[in-house]
Amino acid sequence: MAETGTNKIIVIGGGYAGLRVVEKLAKNPHNEIRLFDKNSYHFMQTEVYDLIANEEDFAQVSVDLFTFCMGFDGNVVFTKQEVCTVDFSNKKVITSAQRHKYDYLVIAVGARTKFVTDVVGLRTHAHGIKVLHRAMHFKQKFEMALFKRVEQSGTTCSAINIVVAGGGLSGVEIAAQMASFAKRFYRKNNFICRKLSIILINSGEKILQGLDEKLVTKSDERLQELGVSIRHKCRVAEINEHSVTLSSAEVLPMDFMVFAGGIEPNALVCDLQLEKNERGYIITNSHLQVSHHEEVFAIGDCTTIYNKNSIVAPTADTAEQTAEICARNIANLIHKKPLIAHAIKSRGVLIALGRNYAVGKVYGIYVSGYFAFVIKKIVERVYAKRLDMHSCKGCKKIFID
């Protein structure tokens, strides 16, 4: 497409990667961008733990996609429709309502919680937290359970039993944040009944497999300090309404279970006629293009990113880096310039481990405690501020019109 013409670009997915690529592409006034998502909001998953622990509310962890897209110079439109499939031969995105032609396509649909089918009762009785409505549902049930224990004070004092399945980043952070919140809740209100049992199920020998050893040790110590029990080298075998059976045959009482045992490709990825790897993720080349379609890119968690034959962890930071490379390569295609190969790597990791405490490694430097917590909050606030800038511009346009 010539620079003097209009470049029709479709972005599927309003996550970290999708919004970043829209921001970058919108700088070219010749780009006509349409963003698709089945939800009308962007969910900041890195802050879900604060949402559940009442550190932040719904408005602070979400961004309205309509106002966000209106905050550009008229060349970005949001369409709240779920994409059913893509006709790659005719360059059309197909939804339940209509078909949309594109010159360039960016697939940024992310990943979803993998509810293992061979675990009896998992989908029925476990909570996932990667999507906002599930996180909100769990938050409400947890708060009601705390309230019921308060009502029981002076008569009975039964424990709240929470099982968190998954010893990766999500599982560790949610276990720590809930333990920290409950301790503060009981201490602040001087309740007699303070029984809370949080058990983290980890399939490996250590939590946070693959992360830096110092971060693993610090995180393990923090969990112990918060009273979180860890069951190593076992998995969830079966779940019913009130208990969880482990592969070790141990049966744990359970009021709530959070499942953070892994992710899998989004449903749309499974249906697309594209080349995928053994785990079902879209295969991309070094320029983030899919096979056989140079005008189609896949970014964020729906593809697997490698750096020197090692998989780069699928984080918000990684997703935004893929978005920036993707935007540059689409611009290069438009201008008929050589494409650039990515060299994406993790710039750091910050692990939230309860109120006012985090551990991390940023650009090779170890941080922990309140200082690490402040850094994490700054990173989150800078991201939110950037999105709010566009949303505020969109709101002003609504009221002026």
Structure write-up:
The longest helix is centred in the last third of the chain and has 32 residues. The mean pLDDT is 89. 42% of the residues are buried. The strands form eight sheets. The protein has a six-stranded mixed β-sheet. The chain has a four-stranded parallel β-sheet with strand order 13-12-11-17. The chain folds into two domains: 148 residues, FAD/NAD(P)-binding domain (3-Layer(bba) Sandwich), CATH 3.50.50.60; 142 residues, FAD/NAD(P)-binding domain. Helix 1 packs parallel to helix 9. It is an alpha/beta fold and 401 residues long. It contains ten helices and 25 strands. The chain starts with 6 loop residues before the first strand and ends with a helix.
Features:
401 residues; alpha/beta; FAD/NAD(P)-binding domain; 2 domains; 6-stranded mixed β-sheet
